[in-house]
Write a structure and sequence with these properties.
Elements lengths: L6 H32 L14 H33 L7 H32 L7 E8 L2 E6 L4 E4 L1 E5 L4 E7 L4 E3 L8 E3 L5 E5 L5 E6 L12 E7 L1 H12 L8 H12 L7 E2 L3 E2 L14 E2 L4 E2 L2 H14 L12 H12 L3
Parallel strand pairs: 1-5, 4-10
Antiparallel strand pairs: 1-2, 2-3, 5-8, 6-7, 9-10, 11-12, 13-14
Helix pairs in contact: 1-2, 2-3, 5-7, 6-7
């Protein structure tokens, strides 16, 4: 008398349980993702927190893609669940029709629809008129900022008026970089031999984080900038002040600092308007008023500025600024002088 072995049934049940557990985990992951996305949290560098029209169009496209593909994901998991719970009849003509519709026709329609929405978004990002022209040149590893019509040069910090369309002329000195302010718009490559254009507008005053998104070797990860959006009146005042050369220092400590700057080699690399003509490093005419040092590496403070001058390599390894060997008195005088340049 033969007896049936329950081993296969047990294995089949175990495999089915594992599949169901995997499907359940997928549903839980989807629900958790939806809840996290829907949470009202502070997103200072997120494309989902737009602060300008270009970023708004991009965020809208992102949400459209998210919800469409979320539905596709749920339907796919549902069909997979049904397939695991039932057996398809051999030779059924409905099987091939369903595979063609669900695997070819419907995905093709979805992709065509997404393509149309993407092209519409790209068209909405185009601009034909601007209120301000700003030229940005990327270096190793920092950003030079020029206002050609106003005669202002800055570094790693861009100032714009709220509500104005700004045309950025982007180029690179050396290798390819990329320019991106997540809350204001999309990315644009910065090329050594050809300039590219990007139009951005900030609808809200504030400080926006920007970064290089093209790997450019070395300390690429520490290559950032800040875009500061002012009210129009405040921007006009900033621009007028920035266009004027810094006044000659009157206080003895500041005079000593300027002397240290000129004789210690700083003037060979850095520019201070009407004082030093160096062009290898960032322009320091407005360094005292900047929010960061080292292209967004650390907050601009007297202590950090002194540390940067003394040993920039310890703060941003691989940058092109050498160590300095200044006496403490000279270092403090130099910091005071640079801090006064605003």
């Amino acid at each position: 008398m033969s007896m049936k072995k329950p081993v296969k049934k047990t294995c089949h049940s175990k495999e089915t349980g594992q599949r169901n557990q995997g499907l359940l985990s997928g549903f839980i992951l989807l629900i958790a993702t939806l809840l996290l996305v829907a949470c009202s949290v502070e997103r200072p560098h997120s494309i989902l927190d737009p602060a300008g029209p270009a970023a708004g169009h991009i965020a809208t496209l992102w949400w459209q893609m998210f919800w469409v593909y979320a539905v596709v994901f749920i339907v796919t998991l549902s069909l997979l669940t049904l397939a695991l719970r039932s057996r398809r009849r051999e030779g059924s003509p409905m099987g091939s029709r369903f595979v063609f519709a669900a695997g070819v026709a419907i995905p093709a329609l979805i992709l065509v629809g997404m393509l149309i929405l993407t092209l519409q978004t790209m068209d909405n990002l185009q601009a034909t008129a601007e209120d301000l022209n700003v030229k940005v040149i990327s270096h190793h590893w920092w950003f030079e900022v020029q206002y050609p019509e106003q005669g202002v040069v800055d570094a790693n910090e861009i100032h714009v008026p709220v509500g104005s369309m700004v045309r950025f002329e982007l180029s690179a000195a050396g290798v390819i970089h990329s320019f991106w302010v997540p809350r204001l718009g999309g990315k644009r490559d910065m090329l050594p031999d050809y300039y590219t254009e990007l139009y951005l507008q900030a609808d809200e005053p504030g400080v926006y984080h920007g970064t290089c998104t093209e790997y450019c070797a070395g300390v690429h990860a520490l290559m950032g900038f800040r875009l500061v959006a002012h009210e129009p009146e405040d921007f006009s005042r900033w621009l007028e002040q920035a266009a004027d050369p810094p006044p000659p220092p009157v206080e003895p400590q500041l005079q000593r600092g300027q002397e240290v700057f000129m004789r210690s080699g700083c003037a060979g690399c850095h520019t201070i308007k009407d004082v030093a003509p160096g062009t290898l490093g960032p322009d320091l005419t407005l360094i005292g008023g900047r929010r960061t040092l080292g292209a967004g590496t650390l907050e601009n403070s007297r202590g950090n500025l002194a540390g940067w001058i003394a040993n920039a390599q310890a703060l941003k390894p691989g940058n092109e600024m050498p160590m300095s060997y200044l006496e403490p008195g000279d270092l403090h005088a130099l910091v005071d002088y640079l801090w006064s340049l605003q």
